[in-house]
Write a structure and sequence with these properties.
This protein is an all-alpha fold and about 70 residues long. It is about 40% helix and about 0% strand.
Length: about 70
């Protein structure tokens, strides 16, 4: 039965059941959503205070022209 249903399954993982490797976290969320979450993290937690468990690292700051 499992083999018959595999073609209908999404190729995703449960976020709480993966390793802490950043590539795995990106694979779960997808690159576009992960980038959006990283920008939100840069805005609200730039010092990465909330870095426990599967962390989304803040996006790099955009250099300003002075």
């Amino acid at each position: 039965m499992y083999a018959a249903l595999t073609s209908h399954m999404a190729a995703r993982a449960y976020i709480n059941a993966i390793s802490e490797d950043e590539a795995d976290v990106i694979a779960v969320y997808g690159e576009e959503k992960y980038a959006r979450l990283a920008h939100i993290k840069r805005r609200y937690d730039p010092d990465d205070v909330f870095h426990c468990n599967l962390n989304i690292k803040p996006a790099p700051a955009i250099p300003t022209q002075g």
